[in-house]
Design a protein that fits this description.
The structure holds 2 protein chains of 2 kinds. Chain A is of the alpha/beta class. Helices cover 35% and strands 22% of the residues of chain A. In chain A, strand 9 and strand 10 form a beta hairpin. The two termini of chain A are 64 Å apart. By secondary structure, chain B is of the alpha/beta class. Chain B has a 4-stranded mixed β-sheet with strand order 5-6-7-8, with helices on one face. In chain B, strands 1-2 form a two-stranded parallel ribbon. Chain B is 53% helix and 11% strand. The chains are: A alpha/beta, B alpha/beta. At the A-B interface, strand 1, helix 1, strand 3 and strand 4 of A face helix 1, strand 1, helix 2, helix 3 and helix 6 of B. Strand 1 of chain A pairs parallel with strand 1 of chain B.
Chain lengths: 400, 438
C-alpha cells in the first residue's frame, strides 16, 4: 500500500541557491576581466572578435581521468556495423569521464558556463557599465559643444544679402490674391501691383549648440631601447582598454599612433605595437608631433582630444623642461591627458644616497608632472598586468 | 486536463503492490507526492532529497535543468524516487495515467532494490530524511552565524565537494580512527610470532593508507574549527549515502525496468493505456547509439539472466552485486555481441576518438573490462592519504590504474584540498609513466 498526497510546495526552495549561483557568475566575469584585458590576443583586434572569458570558481572540480589513449570507454552500436579504427563523434578533448558520448560532442548549451564567449564590444560594454561614473560624464568626458549657425525659418526683417526672393514673391502673390478678392485690385486693368515693404522676407539664421561626438585619441609611446618588450606589452594592453572605452563613449574615434625615440613619427597600429627601435629618449619630440598633427588635422573646436603618453620615465634630463612646456600647452586643448609610466618607481632611498641621482629623481618626469596634475591631467603607473584594470578605473574615477 | 484522479491512482497502486508481492519483491512503503514540473525540477536539482543542505551548485543545476527543459532539449524524468523508508517518489501532475502506471511499477522495483541490495545496507533509509534535514539546518545556522557567514561555509563546502567521492567504496567496513588502529596494531605486534611486524613503524600516521580523505582531514587537522569539522562530517555522510547509488546505477535501473515490464504485463491494461505504455517503455530502454544506456544495459543483463536461469536467479543477483561485479559475472560473449559493444579512446595525436575494439570472440573480454572500469565509481580516480609528515605535510597519492589524471582538474582539486588542510599538501600521481608531484 502506497500513499498519495499533494506535494507541499515550499515557495521555490532553490531560489536562494539559484541567485547565489548567478551572483557567482557575475562576480566571476568581473574578476576574469582583468585577465582578459591582459590577454595578448585581443589587443588591437576589431570589436567583433569573440573572446572567451574563463569564469573561475563556478565549476565544481573533481579528480577525473584525462582524455587519452589509456582511458578507454565503451559504447554500444546495436544493429549497426562498426569496425576497429573507425572514427566516432567529434574531437572533444575536454570530456574526461563517464561513459563517453561519441555521438555527441558534449557541449550541451547551458551545461557548463565556466567559459563564456563575448565579442570585444560586449566586453567593453560590460567593463564600462561597471564604471558607473556620473563624475566622468559631467567633467572629463563632456562632449565639446560647438556653435553652428543654422537656418531657422524666415522673418520680415534682416540684412539685404539674406533676402529670400522666393518667400518674398510668395508674400506678394498672397497679398495680390487677397486684393483681387477684396476688389481693391483689378487684374484686367493692367495696373502694376508693386512689392511692398511688408512682403520682404529674410532668411533667419540662429546659432545652435551642437554636441560633438567625435574624438581623437593620441597614443604616444616611447619606443626607445629602454622600453622592453614586456613594458611595451603593458602599454599596449592599457592603450587597448582606453581605445575600447573611448570607442564606447563616442560615435567615432580617430586614433593616432605616435612613437618616438629622440624624434617622433606617426605610425600605424601594427608598427606602433611591434616595431622595436633603439636609441635615446626625448619625450618632447612625441608631444611636438601630437601638437603638429592637432594643428593640421584636429581642430580642438571640432574634436574631443585625448592624449595618452606612455613611457618608462627615462627621459633625457635636458629635455624635461621642453616636455613640461608641451604638456602644459597640450593640456589646454585636450579633454584629458595622461602621463603613464611603466615599471617600478625608482627606489628613492637608494637614489637619495647619490646626490646625482637624487637630483635626477627630483627632475624626473614623474615628479615634475605632479605639479600640473588636475582633473584633466593624470599621472599613472603600471607595474604589472594586475595594475591595468585598477589604474584604468582610478583614472576614470571608478571604484577601485 | 489530467486523465486520472487520486482514487484511480490508489486503485491501480493496490493492484501493482499485489503483483509486486507475487513476484517476491520486498520494498519500503512508497509515499507518492503529486507535484508540478517546477517542483520536479527542484527535486532533480537536489538529487531528490527534499531536505538537502543549501549550496549554489544545486541552484546551478536547477537553472540548467530548467533551461534544457524550456528549450525542449530534455524531457523531465517520469520517475524520481529516494532511498528512504518510506520511499518518497514524485509523480508529475502533467503526466498522463499511463505514465503514472509505469512510474509506480518502476518505483516498486527501485524501492525493492534499495531495501535489498547489499551496497545500501548502511544507508539507514529509515532516518535519512531527518538526517539530511538536521544537517541542512546546521549548515543554515553556520551561514547565518555572524562570526562565520555564507562565504566561509561555501568555501568549505566547495572544497569538500571536490573530494566527496574519495571515500571508501566497500560497504560494511567500520571506520577505525587512529587511536583504535594503533591499539589494533600494538596488539598485533605484541602477539606476533611470525616476525612480520618487527620493522613495523607504529608511530606513523596513518597506520594504513586512508581512503577516506574527508574523515582523515577532519580527524587530523588540528586547526579546523568545530563547525568546519561538522561540515566535513555532513558531506562525508552524504557521500556514504549516495555512493551506493552511483555504484549500482546500471543494476538499479535495469532492475526497475524489468519489474515495471513484468507488473504492467500482468496488470492487463486497457488497450490505449497499454499502447502508451509500450511507447514509453521502448523509449526508456532504447539503446543509445555510441553510448551505454544504463536502463538498456541493466535490463538486457537481467533478461539474459532470466532467460538462462529463471527469475529467481535475478532476485538473487540483485542482492549482492554492484555494477562492476554484475557485469563481470553476467555480461557474456553472446550478450556483448548482441549489444555490439565496442571500446573507444581519444587519439591525442589526431584529436579524434577512434574505436579500439569491436565485440567478437577475442575481444569481448577486453571490452567488458573496459566497461567495468567506467561503471559505478570506476570513472572516479582513487586518491588516498599515504602519510602525515612530522612537519604537518599531508602526503596524498593517486592509485594509478593505467589511466592518467586530467591535470588541469587535479590542479584545481589540489587547491581546494589546501583549503581544508592547514600545513601543506603533497600529491603524487603518474603522468605518461613519470611521477608527477603537485
Amino acid at each position: 500500500m502506497s500513499t498519495f498526497k499533494e506535494h507541499k510546495t515550499i515557495a521555490d526552495r532553490a531560489a536562494s541557491d539559484r541567485s547565489r549561483h548567478r551572483k557567482k557568475v557575475e562576480k566571476a566575469i568581473k574578476e576574469s576581466i582583468k585577465d582578459v584585458v591582459a590577454e595578448e590576443s585581443i589587443i588591437g583586434q576589431s570589436g567583433k572578435k569573440k573572446v572567451k572569458i574563463p569564469i573561475k570558481g563556478i565549476k565544481e572540480h573533481q579528480f577525473v581521468y584525462g582524455n587519452n589513449e589509456n582511458n578507454k570507454r565503451v559504447g554500444s552500436a546495436q544493429g549497426k556495423k562498426v569496425q576497429q579504427g573507425q572514427r566516432i563523434g567529434k574531437a572533444n578533448p575536454r570530456r574526461g569521464q563517464g561513459q563517453g558520448e561519441p555521438g555527441k560532442p558534449g557541449n550541451k548549451p547551458g551545461e557548463e558556463m565556466y567559459e563564456i564567449e563575448m565579442s570585444l564590444e560586449e566586453l567593453a560594454e560590460y567593463l564600462f557599465s561597471d564604471l558607473n561614473l556620473p563624475e566622468l560624464e559631467k567633467k572629463q568626458f563632456k562632449f565639446i559643444t560647438e556653435e553652428k549657425m543654422k537656418r531657422k525659418g524666415k522673418r520680415p526683417y534682416g540684412i539685404r544679402p539674406r533676402l529670400s526672393k522666393k518667400e518674398t514673391i510668395k508674400q506678394k502673390i498672397r497679398r495680390k490674391k487677397a486684393a483681387i478678392k477684396a476688389g481693391s485690385h483689378d487684374p484686367e486693368s493692367g495696373e502694376r501691383f508693386p512689392f511692398h515693404e511688408s512682403d520682404l522676407r529674410y532668411k533667419h539664421i540662429a546659432p545652435v549648440q551642437k554636441e560633438n561626438t567625435t574624438a581623437v585619441i593620441f597614443f604616444v609611446m616611447d619606443v626607445s631601447g629602454s622600453m622592453t618588450k614586456s613594458k611595451k606589452f603593458l602599454a599596449r594592453s592599457f592603450f587597448f582598454l582606453l581605445y575600447q572605452f573611448l570607442n564606447h563613449k563616442y560615435s567615432s574615434v580617430d586614433v593616432v599612433f605616435v612613437s618616438h625615440t629622440t624624434d617622433a613619427n606617426e605610425v600605424n597600429e601594427e608598427q606602433f605595437f611591434t616595431r622595436a627601435t633603439g636609441g635615446g629618449t626625448m619625450a618632447s619630440s612625441g608631444l611636438q608631433k601630437v601638437k603638429d598633427i592637432i594643428d593640421k588635422r584636429y581642430h580642438p573646436n571640432n574634436w574631443n582630444i585625448y592624449t595618452f603618453y606612455c613611457g618608462d620615465g627615462e627621459n633625457w634630463g635636458s629635455d624635461n623642461d621642453k616636455t613640461m612646456d608641451l604638456f602644459n600647452e597640450l593640456k589646454e586643448i585636450n579633454q584629458m591627458m595622461c602621463y603613464t609610466e611603466i615599471g617600478e618607481a625608482p627606489d628613492s632611498r637608494r637614489l637619495n644616497s647619490l646626490s646625482f641621482f637624487a637630483e635626477f629623481s627630483e627632475n624626473s618626469l614623474w615628479n615634475r608632472v605632479e605639479t600640473i596634475m588636475d582633473k584633466t591631467f593624470k599621472r599613472n603607473r603600471l607595474v604589472t598586468h594586475d595594475n591595468i584594470w585598477t589604474s584604468f578605473k582610478r583614472l576614470f574615477g571608478g571604484k577601485v | 486536463m489530467a486523465d486520472w484522479s487520486m482514487d484511480e491512482l490508489q486503485d491501480w497502486d493496490d493492484k501493482i503492490c499485489e503483483l509486486g508481492k507475487e513476484l517476491g519483491l520486498d520494498w519500503y512503503p512508497i509515499s507518492y507526492e503529486i507535484c508540478d514540473y517546477k517542483a520536479m525540477i527542484g527535486a532533480m536539482a537536489y538529487t531528490g532529497m527534499p531536505t538537502h543542505y543549501r549550496h549554489w551548485s544545486y541552484g546551478k543545476s536547477f537553472d540548467r535543468i530548467q533551461t534544457e527543459y524550456d528549450l525542449g532539449m530534455q524531457g523531465l524524468p517520469y520517475e524520481m524516487i529516494i532511498n528512504s523508508n518510506p520511499s518518497i517518489a514524485y509523480l508529475m501532475t502533467e503526466n498522463p495515467m499511463s505514465t503514472h502506471l509505469l512510474t509506480m511499477a518502476h518505483c516498486v522495483g527501485h524501492s525493492d532494490f534499495f531495501k535489498n541490495n547489499r551496497m545500501f545496507m548502511e544507508t539507514n533509509a529509515g532516518t535519512v530524511i531527518d538526517r539530511f534535514k538536521a544537517a541542512g539546518k546546521r549548515i543554515q545556522k553556520y551561514m547565518e552565524d555572524p562570526n562565520i557567514g555564507i562565504d566561509k561555509v561555501e568555501k568549505i563546502i566547495d572544497a569538500c565537494h571536490t573530494i566527496k567521492y574519495q571515500v571508501p567504496r566497500t560497504p560494511g567496513l567500520k571506520r577505525r580512527d587512529h587511536k583504535k588502529l594503533k591499539e589494533y596494531y600494538k596488539n598485533l605486534m605484541m602477539n606476533d610470532t611470525t616476525g612480520w611486524y618487527n620493522d613495523f613503524n607504529i608511530e606513523k600516521i596513518p597506520l594504513e593508507p586512508d581512503y577516506n580523505l574527508l574523515a582523515f582531514i577532519r580527524e587530523h587537522n588540528r586547526f579546523l574549527e568545530e563547525w568546519e569539522k561538522d561540515v566535513l562530517h555532513i558531506i562525508e555522510d552524504n557521500s556514504k549515502y549516495f555512493v551506493p547509488q552511483a555504484r549500482t546505477k546500471i543494476m538499479n535501473e535495469g532492475w526497475a525496468v524489468l519489474i515495471h515490464e513484468k507488473i504492467i504485463k500482468m496488470l492487463d491494461l486497457p488497450t490505449d493505456y497499454h499502447l502508451a505504455f509500450i511507447r514509453l517503455h521502448n523509449q526508456v530502454i532504447r539503446p543509445h547509439l555510441g553510448r551505454v544506456n544504463p536502463y538498456h544495459l541493466g535490463y538486457k543483463i537481467f533478461r539474459h539472466i532470466e532467460d538462462k536461469h529463471g527469475f529467481q536467479a535475478c532476485l538473487d543477483a540483485r542482492l549482492s552485486h554492484s555494477d562492476e561485479t554484475f557485469i563481470k559475472t553476467y555480461l557474456d560473449e553472446e550478450l556483448c555481441n548482441e549489444l555490439n559493444l565496442f571500446s573507444f579512446a581519444y587519439q591525442r595525436r589526431e584529436g579524434v576518438h577512434r574505436i579500439t575494439d569491436v565485440s567478437g570472440e577475442d575481444t569481448w573480454r577486453t571490452i567488458r573490462d573496459d566497461l567495468i572500469k567506467n561503471v559505478g565509481l570506476g570513472s572516479v580516480p582513487t586518491v588516498y592519504v599515504e602519510k602525515l609528515e612530522k612537519d604537518g605535510t599531508l602526503i596524498l597519492k593517486h592509485e594509478h590504474d593505467g589511466r592518467d589524471l586530467e591535470l588541469s582538474e587535479a590542479n584545481r582539486v589540489f587547491e581546494h584540498i589546501n583549503v581544508l588542510w592547514s600545513g601543506g599538501v603533497k600529491f603524487t600521481t603518474i603522468i605518461e609513466d613519470e611521477i608527477w608531484e603537485f
